[in-house]
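lol forgot to send this yesterday, sorry. struct tokens for the thing we talked abt
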């Protein structure tokens, strides 16, 4: 599937059938009133992503509906008709958005964290983000990293619940001082905030 060209597939799909269209306007914005139109959109989306969550898909359909309505309303106020929107065009916009918003994000979340690199970045940014861990806090963050590696010898991915790991660390033989909890939590928050950077273990 690595050679699968999504844009080409979507474009070729337009050539093989006469698609349904919907005329958005200031007074026309409910696509369910056009027989078969929403059904065609759903069918197209699920032909690409059969496991898409229904609540996400329907929310994206409604958001796209609002977008086209807003565009059409703006054109109508200028005395112009809005170009009819084909079911394929409508579905394609959702397919691309779903890929960008959900699949790319999930792919990044599955990468492993290079904890040493992350700690270096955390310490170099401490002035800008006002983390300023104490010396004892930095030592405990190092212990927390060791703890994570012991529990996840094959690598710590962004899917790991670091808050749960922190709770387990607090009850472990490491026994971190309570005064260092804020420093460790700041480090965890840093990892979450910068989670889309690649910190892959070498």
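and heres what i got for the seq, position by position
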């Amino acid at each position: 599937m690595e050679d699968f060209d999504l844009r080409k597939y979507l474009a070729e799909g337009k050539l093989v059938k006469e698609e349904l269209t919907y005329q958005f306007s200031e007074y026309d914005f409910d696509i369910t009133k056009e027989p078969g139109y929403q059904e065609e959109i759903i069918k197209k989306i699920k032909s690409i992503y059969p496991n898409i969550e229904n609540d996400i898909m329907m929310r994206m359909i409604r958001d796209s509906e609002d977008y086209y309505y807003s565009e059409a309303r703006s054109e109508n106020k200028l005395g112009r008709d809005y170009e009819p929107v084909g079911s394929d065009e409508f579905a394609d916009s959702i397919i691309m958005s779903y890929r960008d918003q959900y699949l790319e994000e999930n792919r990044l979340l599955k990468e492993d964290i290079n904890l040493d690199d992350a700690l270096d970045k955390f310490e170099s940014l401490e002035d800008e983000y006002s983390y300023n861990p104490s010396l004892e806090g930095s030592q405990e963050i190092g212990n927390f990293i060791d703890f994570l590696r012991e529990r996840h010898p094959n690598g710590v991915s962004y899917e790991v619940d670091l808050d749960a790991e922190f709770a387990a660390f607090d009850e472990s033989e490491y026994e971190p001082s309570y005064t260092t909890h804020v420093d460790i939590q700041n480090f965890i928050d840093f990892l979450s905030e910068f989670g889309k950077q690649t910190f892959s273990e070498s």
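Residues 196-202 have pLDDT under 50 and may be disordered. anyway ping me if u want another try
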